[in-house]
């Protein structure tokens, strides 16, 4: 292979990689069950983008793990908003951490920004006991401040 061909192929590979620029993660934490339209954060401000850059660069949110869209972006002001109410237990089960991975895609030039959404648990489930009634026999001679074992309650949280 001659030198000009090698240089041509090297430049072509270099330009291909330059077209796809990925930046670091933006991380947001918010409680589950937020209403649709609630603000998670301002992605434009956090990325240092000029006003109007999101709409002129046709910004959009892409999901990595599912087709369901949990957040969206307001192109006018750059706010990241809840697109669909999120039930943490339904989404992540009993896992200690619940993270949704999204990508902000900007065009002309192409930029990708990863977004990690940490969904925090709220206590939105009532405890349930096995039986309807709990019976305790406490003798009159029981010490003041005595403790008694009660059956454990369970809830989805």
From TrEMBL:
InterPro entries tied to this protein: Cadherin-like_dom, Cadherin-like_sf, Cadherin_CS, Cadherin_N, Protocadherin/Cadherin-CA
Subcellular location: Membrane
Mode of membrane association: Single-pass membrane protein
Secretion signal span: 1-24
Subcellular location, principal: membrane
Keyword set, alphabetical order: Calcium, Cell adhesion, Glycoprotein, Membrane, Repeat, Signal, Transmembrane, Transmembrane helix
Residue ranges constituting the Cadherin domain according to the UniProt record: 60-129
Matches recorded under PANTHER family: CADHERIN-87A (PTHR24028), PCDH2G3 PROTEIN-RELATED (PTHR24028:SF114)
Name of the protein this chain belongs to: Cadherin domain-containing protein
Biological source species: Goodea atripinnis
Biological classification of the source: Eukaryota, Metazoa, Chordata, Craniata, Vertebrata
């Amino acid at each position: 292979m001659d030198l000009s061909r090698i240089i041509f192929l090297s430049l072509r590979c270099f330009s291909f990689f330059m077209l796809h620029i990925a930046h670091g993660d933006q991380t947001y934490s918010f409680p589950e069950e937020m209403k649709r339209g609630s603000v998670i954060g301002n992605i434009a401000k956090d990325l240092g983008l000029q006003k109007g850059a999101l709409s002129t660069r046709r910004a959009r949110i892409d999901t990595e793990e599912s087709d369901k869209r949990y957040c969206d972006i307001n192109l006018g002001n750059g706010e990241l908003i809840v697109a669909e109410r999120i039930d943490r237990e339904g989404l992540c089960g009993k896992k200690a951490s619940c993270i949704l991975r999204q990508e902000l895609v900007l065009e002309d030039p192409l930029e990708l920004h990863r977004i990690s959404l940490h969904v925090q648990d709220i206590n939105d489930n009532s405890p349930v006991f096995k039986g309807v009634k709990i019976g305790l026999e406490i003798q009159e001679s029981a010490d003041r401040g005595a403790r008694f074992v009660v059956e454990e309650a369970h809830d989805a949280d």
